[in-house]
Write the structure tokens for this entry.
Amino acid sequence: MKLLLVEDEPALRSTLLEALRQGGYVVEVAPGFDQAYEKIKLYRYDCILLDLTLPDGNGLDLLRALKADGSTAGVLIITARDAIEDKVAGLDLGADDYLIKPFHLSELNARLRAIIRRRQFQGQHHIVFRDLLVWPEQAEVLVRGESVPLTRKEYDLLLYLLANPGRILTKEAIAEHLCGDTVDTADSFDFIYTHLKNLRRKLQDKGADNYIRTMYGVGYKLSSE
Ligand code: CA
């Protein structure tokens, strides 16, 4: 799951960044309006944590820009302002939820999980695909009841495929999703091949064969047969 954290307060930003990365998210940061605007124009995110009061602009304008672009990213507003108008305006503009600072990290995590579940898996707590059963909140994957031990990246890759059933995902899109903006492209393609190979092998070991199809020269997709 790839997040964009838009927050101008350095201490809060680094606390959140560390906590979210520990929670297994790929996180990019934007300390102000302009950087955030550039990122949302260039990249896709599963969810955006959006501070409204930025030194160089208003977070609500970022939300407007996202919606105008038809973005499917979830938006969680994080703001110190408890003015009711801001919350209402944010929700009216299509934000999924909001948190008033200060908040507990456990609450942030719970709301993020709920947003991602709503956005990507129709509110389901678990995902079923052929013989696969996935519990996203526990990051647990089962094939016909047998647990499949995956690394965090293998798991993220599988979840990304499951969130896009029937769609071909290019290796560029996968690299961006798994690595964010921290890895250069040539390295990240090798990295993807390795994780794909391992994920396929682990699924195959449990009897889930040919779930991930290679579309030569294009990318990868989940195979429903
Ligand atoms: Ca702020």
The longest strand covers residues 74-79. Residues 8-9, 51, 53-54 surround calcium ion (CB under 6 Å). The mean pLDDT is 91.
